[in-house]
Structure to design on (601 residues):
């Protein structure tokens, strides 16, 4: 598959946060960067004049741009750090191993301590993070310290040591920061309940802690212990004001491959995320052309085997959205919720962005393929017997029942064919009657096409619900075209699509390309019809005033309106003022006409 130019790759990047990677002509990774807005950041490399020599050299070498989308700018920063350490690109500042991001640890021990660390030790302890700076860590720890009294010593608080009186309470106990579990002043059950609340806080769930503190506050207030109630109230305010952060990957998820698949009629897109020690170290999306209408599980299984071989993966477990058979020795997990489900969703999001970019690139580099894919998609989405290469859409226009008109717009291969647009004056209908007007214009349009032996469309769309659709269908029946041409109606309120004989409408995905084409048709028909209606109203206004004057033609009327701006000013002008614009003879006719009108009034 030929890669699109760098210029096209930049144009089709998403605007959300993520990490971008630059590759040279040989596929060698040059640089990894993060961005709050991927498209804006990457574009700046190619639109600015760079003072730095190395940056200018980097830009000249870039031949391919890859990216990974994430939820937040913080996630992008953490992911960038992981990838730079993993790949060490030539143009990146090298990160030392000891400069890792901080975590908050809940130590695996009796009466667990909670403290910050940069080192993840696999001893069963729980780690929350990583955090982008120690300020966030200290804020969280200060919050926890203000809410709960925990020990900070590193004593071995086994039941035997406590019972033997091995330890004595320290200054922290006397300051009220610790309840003295070392001398058995606090039991393990109470301490563990605090640890459980802290776990929820570190995950961003404050509900249980808030409920508990509000209950305590009310109990103190009922006992007239207002100072204690106020202290608890302050803790509640601290909790309510704290904003939690998101994490890229749960550190417990280690050495796992994540795969997701997205497919349409002709192609499938498989994303691969490689996780190592709780961090994303690789993202790759591949495009697969279907040959024999293969199912998603078949294509995903083939892609998993190929990608694992290509990237030399030895992971014993994979996360996927659907069940796949990839051989023995590999554990297949289909997450339903929690952090595992989030990472599969992230993989799917990257596949979606890749597909969107490919669509945009193909639209520029291979318009025929884009049209073929779009037509196949519309045929599938709208349940059509054939591809809608030729579509026509009808819309009625009348304001307060005046000057009723209709418009027909024509799309060929998903694009407007403006030379084939047609306007209709309503001839057989008296007053505002959308249904009868729709029947008239549909009948007139296709009676003429049949008489002239012109090709009929594969799809007819009427702007409106079941009523307008029934009217259009009756016109086709009168022409013996029912069943030979598909006709549907689209209602404005919820974009419902109605089919003949079916009371339940079809709802397309709001982001689907098929719906966007239909909306474009409907909006174009509405615009074209409104423009025609305004022209007709304007002409009608002229007809009632100036064109009724004997000897005054359209050219003279246009000249007068250009000068005087309104019929009222023409009526009030003197003969000399009129003569300066249209000459003495025509000025006299106009002046005398309005003079006679005034006398009659």
């Amino acid at each position: 598959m030929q890669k699109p130019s760098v210029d096209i790759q930049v144009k089709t990047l998403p605007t959300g946060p993520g990490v971008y990677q630059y590759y040279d002509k040989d596929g060698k990774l040059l640089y990894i960067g993060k961005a709050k807005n991927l498209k804006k950041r990457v574009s700046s490399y190619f639109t600015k004049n760079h003072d730095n020599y190395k940056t200018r050299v980097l830009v000249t070498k870039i031949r391919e741009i890859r990216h990974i989308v994430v939820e937040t700018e913080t996630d992008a920063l953490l992911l960038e750090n992981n990838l730079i350490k993993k790949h060490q690109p030539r143009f990146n500042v090298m990160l030392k191993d000891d400069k890792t991001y901080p975590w908050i640890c809940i130590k695996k021990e009796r009466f667990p301590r909670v403290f910050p660390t940069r080192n993840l030790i696999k001893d069963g302890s729980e780690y929350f993070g990583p955090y982008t700076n120690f300020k966030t860590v200290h804020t969280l720890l200060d919050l926890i310290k203000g809410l709960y009294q925990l020990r900070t010593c590193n004593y071995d608080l086994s039941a035997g040591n406590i019972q033997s009186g091995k330890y004595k309470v320290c200054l922290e106990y006397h300051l009220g920061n610790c309840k003295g579990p070392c001398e058995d002043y606090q039991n393990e059950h109470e301490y563990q309940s605090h640890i459980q609340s802290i776990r929820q806080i570190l995950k961003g769930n404050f509900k249980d802690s808030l409920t508990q503190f509000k209950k305590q506050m009310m109990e103190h207030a009922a006992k007239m212990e207002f100072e204690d109630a106020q202290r608890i109230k302050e803790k509640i305010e601290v909790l309510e004001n704290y904003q939690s952060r998101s994490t890229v990957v749960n550190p417990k998820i280690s050495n796992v491959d994540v795969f997701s698949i997205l497919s349409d009629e002709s192609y499938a897109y498989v994303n691969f995320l490689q996780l190592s020690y709780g961090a994303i170290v690789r993202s790759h999306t591949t495009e697969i052309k279907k040959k024999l209408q293969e199912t998603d599980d078949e294509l995903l299984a083939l892609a998993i085997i190929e990608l694992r071989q290509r990237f030399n993966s030895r992971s014993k477990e994979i996360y996927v959205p659907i069940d796949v058979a990839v051989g023995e020795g590999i554990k297949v997990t289909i997450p339903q919720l929690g952090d595992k489900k989030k990472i599969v969703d992230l993989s799917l999001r990257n596949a979606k962005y890749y597909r969107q970019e490919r669509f945009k690139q193909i639209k520029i580099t291979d318009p025929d393929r884009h049209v073929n894919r779009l037509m196949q998609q519309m045929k599938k989405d709208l349940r059509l017997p054939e591809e809608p290469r030729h579509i026509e859409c009808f819309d009625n226009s009348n304001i307060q029942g005046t000057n009723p008109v209709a418009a027909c717009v024509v799309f060929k291969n998903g694009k407007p064919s403006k030379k084939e647009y047609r306007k209709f004056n309503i001839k057989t209908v008296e007053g505002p009657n959308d249904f009868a007007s729709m029947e008239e214009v549909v009948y007139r349009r296709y009676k003429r096409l049949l008489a002239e032996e012109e090709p009929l469309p594969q799809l007819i769309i009427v702007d409106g619900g079941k009523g307008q659709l029934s009217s259009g269908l009756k016109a086709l029946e009168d022409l013996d075209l029912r069943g030979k041409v598909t006709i549907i109606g689209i209602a404005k309120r919820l974009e419902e699509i109605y089919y003949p004989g079916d009371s339940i409408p079809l709802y397309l995905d709001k982001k689907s390309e098929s719906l966007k084409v239909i909306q474009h048709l409907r909006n174009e028909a509405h615009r074209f019809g409104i423009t025609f209606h305004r022209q007709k109203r304007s002409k009608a206004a002229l007809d009632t005033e100036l064109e009724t004057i004997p000897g005054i033609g359209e050219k003279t009327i246009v000249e007068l309106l250009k000068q005087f701006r309104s019929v009222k000013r023409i009526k009030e002008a003197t003969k000399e003022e009129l003569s300066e614009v249209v000459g003495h003879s025509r000025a006299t006719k106009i002046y005398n006409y309005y003079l006679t009108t005034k006398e009659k009034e």
User: Anything to note?
Assistant: The radius of gyration is 36 Å.
